[in-house]
Amino acid sequence: MNQSNIDALRTQAVPFRAHLIDGKLLPASDNGRMDVLSPIDGQLLTQVARGTAADMQAAIASARASFEDKRWAGQPPAARKKVLLKWADLIEANALELAVLGVRDNGTEIGMALKAEPGSAAGTIRYYAEALDKIYGEVAPTSSDILGLIHKEPVGVVGAIIPWNFPMMIGAWKLGPALAMGNSVVLKPAETASLSLMRMAELALEAGLPPGVLNAVTGEGAVVGETMGLSMDVDVLVFTGSGATGRRLMEYSARSNMKRVYLELGGKSPNIIFADAPDLSEAAKVAAAGIFRNAGQVCVAGSRLLIETCIHDEFVAEVTRVAEGMRVGDPLSLETAIGAVNSESQLKQNLGFVVTARAEGGEVVTGGERILQETGGYFMSPTIVTGVTPGSTLAQKEVFGPVLGVTPFASDDEAVLIANSTVYGLAGAVWTSSLARAHRMIRDVRTGVMHVNTYGGADNTVPLGGVGQSGNGHDKSMHAIEKYINLKTAWIKL
Ligand code: ADP
After folding, report:
1. Which residues act catalytically here (predicted)?
2. What are phi and psi of 344, to 5 degrees?
């Protein structure tokens, strides 16, 4: 992959993107369209269908019909596997086009997008394709006059609501296991990042997925997302996004058919640096990457840096040096370390957090500003705020932007206390040379993922999910399968 391949695609016209319903590309029922602005320059990139409630209902009806007639669930596992493997191949074959399209839509730096988006999506689809014929039912240890069988059945229609930070990667986390287990799916990409995921969905049909098994509807969360949430015909809702929307989805479920709701929400993940870290300069580099890549728009971002008091000043100076050396700008340049903030409203929100942090006594040691405004794009300098007290806004609320809050601690107990002082529990890290301390921190920090002497970078083999208000259920690994099956008991008298 070189820069000239990317540049060749950078200004390519992007056609209007329609819904994908029952295997057909369809405009909105009222022909409504939404403008898609590129965060790179704030200019119109293309338009997508502005879905109506009727569009979403048609997509759900199509998914339901495809599930009931077993056109997918009824196929032999080997046949389903073949289609999904072909889909993964097609995603890989189109990786550059998908990545560039996604970056023009959402602003992620291309170096990261290539790996994290089509690369990871193809890997995830392949992982579940390969798994699907290795999942067995069970025979229960009943008394000898009974045969107790436990079947694993698809749940039916899965609704998947996807955010804008990594649409293809997160989309694949839901679509891979959902489709592998024989479900039919309705997909709802985010308003500000639907293009690459819609194209990826279309490739599934090219790979041989029967029409109606995967439907995708673009539009506003409050319209098409709500219709999906309130549907009596969606059996499971899987979601990654904000806590506010997650809460709504649970309400929709309670108000309709009590569909199962799995939420992967935000975080305020602590990155805990002890003076006995094996390599403090490596720790500083990784800490900066762990919050600033993709402009901080990463649910597991290490947004709270907890530093042992005796190395606080030295470590802050080192992270600041690393942050100031990270190149912010054109997301389509391979040299860029930090791309664009996804939207103007997100940028304003990020800057608002900096104002509040200052007002609450924090000191902005670097960044804190919108930059490169002349490009028309939404760029923000990597921002470090010291003196962030555990109860303050920056320590408690997820920014979802390139803003790192720093808090000192004096002992292991204090580090744990601060680490566990938010409503979240998604990720975290500890940097230490002590095996015992590392294991104590793994045990005591309330979180779904804990890193030791690194930050980020897991693969499909391990689950990702939060505790507390970071959500429930897991993406990735064989544990994700549980969300997409029903257990059925057969109790047979012999
Ligand atoms: P953000 O505020 O960062 O955009 P959201 O949680 O609002 O995060 O967005 C994540 C996804 O949730 C998007 O696909 C969005 O369209 C969808 N969404 C937003 N509001 C609703 C809603 N009321 N019902 C269902 N989905 C929604």
Report:
1. 264
2. -65, -35
Ligand 1 and 266: CB distance under 6 A = no
Spacing, Cα 249 to ligand 1 middle (Å): 10
Question: What are 210-238's pLDDT values in tens digits?
Answer: 999 999 999 999 999 999 999 999 999 99
- Phi, psi angle pair for 240, to nearest 5°: -130, 130
Q: In this structure, are residues 430 and 306 in contact, taking their beta carbons and an 8 Å threshold?
A: no
The structure tokens listed for 457 are 């970078």
Residues 6+ apart with CB under 8 A from 410: 308, 309
For the entire predicted model, the pTM comes to 0.98
Please spell the DSSP secondary structure of 112-141, one letter per residue: HHHIIIIIHHHHHHHHHHHHGGG---EEE-
Give me the sheet containing 429-431, strands edge to edge.
Answer: 363-366, 383-386, 403-409, 304-308, 270-273, 429-431, 451-452
Between the alpha carbon of residue 485 and those of residues 150, 156, 235, 236, 410, the distances in Å are 12, 9, 11, 10, 47
Query: Whose structure tokens read 């679509």?
Result: 175
Give the whole-angstrom CA distance, residue 287 versus residue 197. Answer: 29
- Mean pLDDT, the chain, whole residue set: 98
| Full set of structural domains in the chain with CATH | 3-265+471-491 (3.40.605.10), 270-459 (3.40.309.10)
pLDDT at 457: 81
Ligand 1 center–CA 242 separation, angstroms: 7
Render 422-454 in DSSP notation, one character per residue.
SS--S--EEE-S-HHHHHHHHHHS--S--EESS
pLDDT, position 70? 98
pLDDT in tens, 247-287: 999 999 999 999 999 999 999 999 999 999 999 999 999 99
Residue with CA nearest ligand 1 atom 19: 221
Whether residue 161 has pLDDT greater than 80: yes
In whole angstroms, give the CA distance from residue 216 to residue 234.
14
User: How far apart are the C-alpha atoms of 240 and 123, rounded to whole Å?
Assistant: 19
Buried residues in 54-73 as b, exposed as e (16+ CB within 10 A): ebbbbbbbbbbebbeeebbb
pLDDT reported for residue 478: 98
